[in-house]
Design goal:
The chain has a single domain, classed as Alpha/Beta hydrolase fold, catalytic domain (Rossmann fold). 42% of the residues lie in helices and 15% in strands. Strand 1, helix 2 and strand 2 form a beta-alpha-beta unit. The relative contact order is 0.13.
């Protein structure tokens, strides 16, 4: 049961409040930007689709600017509550933020933005959480640490986990879903 003070104090009211909360959270609209080796059918995309109203646009990861256009068009039509980008997709998500094509809450997973030549700068006033595995052998966690030191400190959060580049354990354990929910709630609390 959710720890909320309820004015009516009875179980039926508590159950209704819990159902309302679960419905609100599960109706989150999440746009996922996959990595170089990911796809709309990948494990992260499937997990997000199981828990949220999720969209994972297919894109040609050989062309960064074309990927950016695909994701920007999807943002305009889908209007997500949260944007999630993984590795190469994290670079695309950061570019969307930097070009002011997206301003909402963003979750960057093992982001490859610096590797893709983007400036190590989060825009001011944006809620951005970064998750990086300490056992990542493709992208050094220091790249996420550098990025996390930019932006608005009270809105940026770096989460370092005992995981690999693909964050297999975090996805399997449900932490990815929890981070999306927590990020959405944190952003709502600020608005």
């Amino acid at each position: 049961m959710i720890g909320v003070a309820l004015p009516c104090g009875n179980l039926r009211c508590a159950a209704a409040a819990a159902a309302c909360y679960a419905s609100r959270v599960s109706n989150l609209r999440v746009q996922f930007i996959h990595g170089l080796e990911g796809s709309p059918q990948g494990s992260k995309a499937r997990v997000l689709a199981e828990h949220f109203d999720a969209k994972t646009p297919a894109m040609d990861t050989r062309d960064f600017e074309a990927s950016l256009r695909v994701q920007s068009e999807a943002l305009r039509s889908f209007r997500p509550d949260v944007l999630v980008g993984s590795s190469f997709g994290g670079a695309v998500a950061l570019a969307l933020l930097q070009r002011e094509l997206w301003q909402g809450p963003t979750l960057l997973l093992a982001q490859a933005a610096l590797r893709m030549g983007l400036a190590p700068q989060l825009p001011e006033g944006r809620v951005v959480w970064l998750v990086h595995g300490l056992a990542d052998t493709l992208i050094d966690v220091e790249e996420s640490r550098t990025l996390a030191r930019s932006g608005t400190p009270s809105l940026v959060r770096l989460i370092e986990v005992d995981d690999d580049h693909a964050l297999h354990a975090s996805v399997a354990s449900g932490r990815l879903v929890a981070w999306v929910r927590e990020l959405a709630e944190a952003a709502r609390a600020l608005s």
